């Protein structure tokens, strides 16, 4: 299922989102810059089993503000099981050009991990969605190969 | 149900929090909270601001601190809402700081759990005095993060055992990624540990931000705290540590309970949180004696009768015969009545006692500030100024209508300030005294450096950047890039880099702006001493200060009034030390004892010196701007000096008061008074309002409001939101009392434009005395005075400029000599050549001090002083045991020339240095056989120096100069610019000594070393940069207006040596400045 997830526009978006050259100026020596670039690129690999993409999706929320339906590439999915949300850090000083007072969403990105089920095939998968609050825009960030379990506390 | 944040860090949690207590309280109130805690890391630094802000926003205040407990991590300590609770909190914070060091990196701030338990647990069955919240940074939190469930429970049981009902588990979720620290799962693990041990749980958000968008600032602070870049610093997981409103907090509670395996009800957690919040609500007045002045008890000050009676008795004693004068008696009664009514008699007696202690130590001291307005202060011997003869008004200092506590400032010799502090502590008892602290906030240069460090920019780059930044608010960096000519190059660079996709400098600008005004570090206030009663240390936490062995309060000067702390400013003034050294040198060399309190204030020669504007080294009147003003004003009396000092203030300068005053003073404009009633008020200043005292009298005379109300009106005048009220009051009352519309209009215009900018005459009068005294000493004892200046370097200029001034005054400058120089600069009588007839004044020179030598240690100086004189190199090595490097420096700078055979001196200096360098290390280690008993050490000829191999030529003049600058920072033998003179003369440079003879408007080129840079406020609001250059013949004062600044660029603030082109502007009969059209870095243009 993951194979056909790439939309034609994904490579461009990927470039825009992650592929921009690291913002290192001439103030730093060439070696430092190289070492830095190395570090940056190695961090891109988060989870070997997950595919990292970014694609716009639509999410229908419940009254409590929890996702119940996901619309992706003109197909609807049901959200099954309780979703999990967190805020993931962004390396804004390497990714953004500006950091002026009051800029929102600089330091972290809201992430929702939901289990979805294709109502036709009953196929289940776990996906991570990114949410930008002011515009209420959702992006598909990752599709996990195997369903992720939430932590059980002893 | 409401939600109360129990764990909140403000920006007073240094390099951690991002918002001020005021901002946090405003946000909490806006979010519907009813109460708010402030729990800063390691202290109560923001407590008073928090109380004030909570009061303003209608919130109930709670106080606590985030403290490290030895071996158990960080916990939140909350004070129970009672006097005992607040006291225990102060004591816990102080205890955590015990044994730490203010300067070096000593032990961490922390207290033991046993001590915490002792402070927290009550004697009986009352509530604990302190509550302990165990959150993510506690040992429990760490163990839970590591999924050590058993460990967490064991640790929690220990806490429970040690602190019983005082212990709570603090649940925090910053919604970090699953499994990580500060994730919901982490909180759920804490919840189950609490449930297993039956410890109650509360919910907090471990707040360090007011809003999520402040998180980038916190990232920078995290990096700076560990002196690292953002890439390698341990950063917060995300931006969720903000002051979330009730609904969000309720949702978090639900999410934590959902994630938990134990059955937990979010409602329970929230109601326990609110219950705890309720029992921690503080009543500032009742629990903290907020706003109630605290003064040492009568028995401590040493008075037997009631304070009011004692004060009256001492004042009457002090005034003696003068009490026969009706106005003196009347003034005294008036002041005493107000002081008695306000209950401040013992405060005045306390200050008098401190001054007595200072006199007892033989330290020079002078009162300063509005306290000088008081006859009581004068009568008690605190101030030499008689307020009646200068028209000073008591109500400017104290009245029933002044909300603030009295404040008397005392200037003392800076070199002996700590000695006085120790004495005050000893005298009043260590439980009643503490030094005050101050928070140092980020300003542009520091902000650029730290933001740059976080971004990983190299240090050298940051040094260069910081150098071109000149006093603008860091918050306005981006705007400054557009406006300031010295930043133009930088702005262009940022633009170029942005185009090529590099944005590091762009980020630097944004981050610098974010850091602006955040507290950076705390330090001992330069003069504030808090005096209280025996309970003082129950009301303020203290920590070690920069002064050995003395504690300082965590509160600063703006906290004093609100909290009801009485502070005394004992300010170390280097000029007082310089004067003291000058007087003691005169006494040492000539036996003459001078009492400056008895000198005449009408000495013509002293005023001749002042009018000549050669006032370098004189208190208050040595800056370029002041020399210019003196040149225009031509002071001829102490009153004129008071006027001069009052005019040279940001207010009057900025309001453009100076010009109209000078025009009238010199008769270019006629003096008019709006109404005959005002003549006696304004005639001392030619009809212009200069002093606060005049504003008070105008209000009082025209509205009959009384002087106390007049002072309230004066202060309201300068506030934008109240000045309209003042105006309508003034207009109504004056009209009712029969003043004509035209008069009212005219007086109001003057009040509105100048009234709020005037200067307190009492301040100026207090300053004028040491100003006159220093000028008097410079006139009559120039060599001794310069010796004092060299010793304490009291002013704004570098020592080398003072040395140049001594050279200009033809005072012989005697080089460092290991047989004659001491640890201090000293006057030395020069051998007079025999034909000179005996009555001639001996010539006095100034001998350079050993302290001037770089790298010499205090111990070495002590040994040298003790063993002087030395008859040979070997003798010097033997008895004074200087280190090898010191020995070399001494030789190089010429301090060992006296060991060389007579007449050869400097010519053999290089040989001597080479000899020491070659043999010194070995010789230094050789032990000479000890002398047999009874055998005298014969002063043999120095075989070492007489057999010195001759191989090198002596140093040239330029080399000598370079060595002096290198090893002493002072060009003693000649002016450092002298090496450039020939070249500069050829280039057509005009020297300072010749500028006075140039006609106004002439174009000149000048050059020299920068000795001062100033940007005083201007009436126009536009920046003018004043730079003073020392060219060896005197000082050239340059002014740079817009055009000059634009043509100069980065060199404006960065270059050390400048060459400038401009036109002569005559500013007075004896003063000229050069209005620069452009300037270059001399070192860059010559290389």
From TrEMBL, chain B:
It comes from the Bacteria. InterPro entries: DNA_pol3_alpha_NTPase_dom, DNA_pol3_alpha_thumb_dom, DNA_pol3_finger, DnaE2/DnaE/PolC, DNAPol_HHH, PHP_dom, Pol/His_phosphatase_N, Pol/histidinol_Pase-like. Pfam families: DNA_pol3_alpha (PF07733), DNA_pol3_finger (PF17657), HHH_6 (PF14579), PHP (PF02811). PANTHER family: DNA POLYMERASE III SUBUNIT ALPHA (PTHR32294), ERROR-PRONE DNA POLYMERASE (PTHR32294:SF4). CDD domains: DnaE_OBF. One of its GO terms (molecular function) is DNA-directed DNA polymerase activity. Keywords: Cytoplasm, DNA damage, DNA repair, DNA replication, DNA-directed DNA polymerase, Nucleotidyltransferase, Transferase. GO terms for biological process: DNA repair; DNA replication. This is DNA-directed DNA polymerase. The lineage of its organism: Bacteria, Bacillati, Actinomycetota, Actinomycetes, Micrococcales. It catalyses: DNA(n) + a 2'-deoxyribonucleoside 5'-triphosphate = DNA(n+1) + diphosphate. Gene3D superfamilies: 1.10.150.870, Bacterial DNA polymerase III alpha subunit, thumb domain (1.10.10.1600), Metal-dependent hydrolases (3.20.20.140). Its EC number is 2.7.7.7. Residues 4-71 form the Polymerase/histidinol phosphatase N-terminal domain.
């Amino acid at each position: 299922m993951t194979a056909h997830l790439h939309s034609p526009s994904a490579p461009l978006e990927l470039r825009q989102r992650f592929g921009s050259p690291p913002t290192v100026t001439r103030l730093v020596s060439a070696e430092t810059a190289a070492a830095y670039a190395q570090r940056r690129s190695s961090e891109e690999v988060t989870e070997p089993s997950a595919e990292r993409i970014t694609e716009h999706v639509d999410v229908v929320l419940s009254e409590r503000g929890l996702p119940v339906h996901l619309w992706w590439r003109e197909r609807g999915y049901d959200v099954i099981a309780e979703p999990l949300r967190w805020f993931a850090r962004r390396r804004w000083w390497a990714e953004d050009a500006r950091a002026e007072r009051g800029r929102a969403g600089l330091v972290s990105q809201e992430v929702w991990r939901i289990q979805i089920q294709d109502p036709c095939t009953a196929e289940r998968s776990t996906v991570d969605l990114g949410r930008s609050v002011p515009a209420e825009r959702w992006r598909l960030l990752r599709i996990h190969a195997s369903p992720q379990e939430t932590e059980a506390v002893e | 149900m409401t939600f109360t944040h129990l764990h909140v860090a403000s920006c007073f949690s240094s390099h951690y929090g991002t918002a001020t207590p005021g901002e946090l309280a405003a946000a909490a109130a806006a979010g519907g909270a009813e109460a708010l805690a402030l729990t800063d890391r390691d202290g109560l630094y923001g407590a008073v601001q928090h109380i004030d802000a909570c009061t303003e926003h209608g919130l109930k205040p709670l106080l606590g601190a985030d403290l490290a407990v030895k071996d158990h991590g960080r916990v939140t300590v909350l004070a129970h809402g009672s006097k005992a609770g607040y006291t225990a909190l102060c004591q816990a914070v102080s205890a955590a700081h015990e044994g730490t060091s203010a300067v070096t990196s000593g032990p961490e701030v922390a207290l033991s759990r046993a001590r915490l338990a002792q402070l927290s647990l009550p004697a009986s069955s009352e509530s604990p005095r302190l509550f302990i919240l165990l959150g993510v940074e506690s040992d429990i939190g760490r163990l839970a993060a590591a999924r050590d469930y058993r460990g967490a429970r064991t640790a929690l049981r220990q806490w429970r055992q040690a602190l019983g009902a005082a212990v709570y588990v603090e649940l925090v979720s910053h919604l970090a990624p699953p499994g990580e620290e500060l994730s919901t799962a982490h909180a759920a693990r804490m919840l189950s540990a609490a449930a297993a041990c039956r410890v109650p749980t509360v919910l907090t958000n471990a707040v360090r931000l007011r809003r999520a968008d402040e998180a980038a600032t916190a990232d920078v602070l995290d990096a700076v705290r560990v002196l690292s870049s953002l890439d390698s610093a341990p950063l917060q997981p995300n931006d969720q540590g903000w002051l979330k409103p009730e609904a969000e907090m309720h949702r978090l509670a639900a999410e934590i309970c959902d994630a938990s395996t134990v059955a937990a009800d979010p409602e329970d957690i929230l109601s326990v949180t609110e219950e705890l919040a309720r029992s921690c609500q503080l009543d500032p007045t009742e629990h903290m004696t907020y706003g109630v002045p605290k003064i040492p008890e009568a028995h401590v000050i040493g008075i037997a009768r009631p304070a009011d009676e004692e004060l009256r008795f001492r004042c009457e004693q002090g005034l003696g015969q003068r009490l026969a004068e009706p106005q003196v008696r009347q003034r005294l009664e008036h002041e005493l009545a107000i002081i008695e009514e306000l209950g401040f008699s013992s405060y005045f007696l306390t200050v008098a006692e401190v001054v007595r202690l200072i006199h007892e130590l033989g330290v020079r001291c002078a009162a300063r500030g509005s306290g000088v307005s008081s006859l009581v202060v004068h009568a008690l011997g605190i101030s030499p100024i008689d307020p009646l003869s200068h028209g000073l008004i008591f109500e400017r200092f104290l009245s029933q209508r002044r909300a603030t506590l009295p404040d008397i400032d005392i200037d003392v010799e800076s070199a002996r300030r700590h000695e006085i502090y120790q004495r005050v502590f000893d005298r009043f008892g260590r439980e009643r005294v503490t030094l005050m602290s101050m928070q140092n906030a980020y300003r542009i240069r520091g902000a650029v450096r730290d933001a740059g460090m976080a971004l990983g920019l190299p240090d050298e780059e940051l040094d260069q950047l910081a150098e071109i930044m000149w006093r603008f608010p860091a918050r306005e960096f981006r705007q400054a890039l557009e406006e300031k000519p010295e930043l133009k190059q930088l702005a262009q660079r940022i633009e170029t880099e942005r185009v090529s996709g590099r944005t590091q400098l762009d980020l630097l600008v944004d981050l610098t702006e974010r850091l602006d005004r955040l507290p950076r570090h705390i330090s001992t206030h330069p003069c504030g001493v808090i005096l209280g009663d025996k309970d003082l240390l129950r009301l303020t936490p203290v920590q070690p200060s920069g002064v050995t062995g003395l504690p300082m309060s965590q509160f600063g000067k703006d906290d004093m009034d609100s909290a009801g702390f009485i502070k005394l400013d004992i300010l170390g003034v280097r000029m007082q030390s310089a004067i003291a050294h000058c007087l003691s040198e005169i006494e040492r060399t000539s036996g003459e004892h001078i009492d400056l309190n008895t000198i005449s204030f009408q000495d013509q020669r002293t005023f001749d010196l002042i009018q000549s504007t050669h006032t370098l080294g004189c208190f208050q009147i040595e800056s370029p701007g002041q020399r210019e003003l003196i040149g225009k004003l031509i002071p001829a009396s102490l009153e004129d000096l008071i006027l001069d000092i009052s005019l040279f203030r940001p207010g009057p300068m900025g309001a453009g008061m100076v010009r109209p005053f000078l025009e009238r003073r010199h008769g270019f404009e006629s003096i008019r008074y709006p109404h005959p009633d005002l003549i006696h008020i304004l005639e001392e200043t030619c009809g212009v309002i200069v002093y606060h005292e005049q504003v008070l009298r105008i209000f009082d005379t025209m509205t009959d409001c009384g002087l106390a109300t007049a002072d309230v009106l004066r202060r309201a005048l300068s506030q934008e939101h109240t000045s309209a009220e003042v105006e309508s009051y003034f207009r109504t009352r004056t009209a009712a009392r029969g003043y004509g519309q035209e008069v009212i209009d005219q007086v109001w215009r003057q009040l509105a434009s100048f009234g709020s900018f005037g200067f307190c005459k009492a301040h100026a009068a207090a300053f004028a005395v040491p100003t006159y005294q220093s000028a008097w000493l410079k006139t009559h004892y120039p060599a001794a005075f310069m010796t004092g200046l060299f010793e304490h370097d009291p002013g704004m200029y570098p020592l080398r400029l003072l040395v140049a001034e001594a050279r200009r005054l033809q005072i012989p400058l005697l080089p460092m000599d290991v047989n004659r120089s001491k640890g201090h600069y000293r006057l030395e009588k020069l051998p007079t050549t025999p034909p000179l007839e005996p009555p001639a004044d001996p010539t006095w020179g100034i001998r350079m001090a050993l302290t001037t030598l770089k790298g010499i240690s205090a111990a070495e100086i002590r040994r040298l002083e003790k063993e002087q004189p030395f008859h040979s190199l070997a003798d010097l090595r033997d008895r004074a045991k200087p280190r090898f490097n010191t020995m070399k420096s001494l030789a190089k700078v010429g301090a060992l020339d006296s060991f060389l055979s007579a007449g050869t001196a400097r010519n053999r200096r290089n040989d001597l240095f080479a000899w020491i360098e070659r043999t010194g290390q070995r010789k230094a280690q050789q032990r000479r056989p000890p002398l047999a008993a009874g055998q005298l050490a014969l002063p043999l000829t120095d075989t070492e120096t007489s057999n010195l191999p001759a191989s090198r030529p002596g140093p040239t003049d330029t080399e000598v100069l370079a060595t002096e600058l290198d090893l002493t920072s002072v060009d003693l033998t000649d002016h450092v610019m002298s090496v450039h003179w020939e070249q500069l003369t050829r280039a057509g440079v005009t020297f300072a000594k010749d500028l006075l003879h140039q006609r106004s408007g002439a174009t000149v080129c000048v050059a020299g070393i920068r000795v001062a840079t100033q940007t005083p406020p201007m009436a126009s609001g536009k920046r003018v940069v004043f730079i003073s250059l020392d060219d060896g013949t005197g000082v050239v004062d340059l002014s740079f207006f817009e055009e000059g600044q634009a043509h100069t660029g980065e060199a404006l603030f960065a270059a050390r040596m400048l060459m400038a082109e401009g036109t002569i502007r005559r500013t007075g009969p004896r003063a000229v400045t050069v209005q620069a059209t452009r300037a270059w870095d001399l070192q860059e243009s010559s290389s």
